[in-house]
Amino acid sequence: MFWILVMKSKKYLLGVLITKIKKLAKSEWFSHNALLGG
Asked: What's the domain of life for this entry (predicted)?
């Protein structure tokens, strides 16, 4: 039971981390394109 909770929390934290990285990468990409285009 305990290990299931640990695995679930790990998956959740990994998902949060991936979401943050994706958002960060997207904003970085947009600002980079804005610099190139502007």
From this structure: Bacteria
Tell me the C-alpha distance between 30 and 14, whole Å: 24
Where do we find the tokens 């990994």? 14
Task: For 6-15, give one letter per residue: b (16+ CB within 10 A) or e.
Answer: eeeeeeeeee
d(CA 28, CA 21): 10
d(CA 2, CA 17) in angstroms, rounded, equals 22
pTM: 0.59
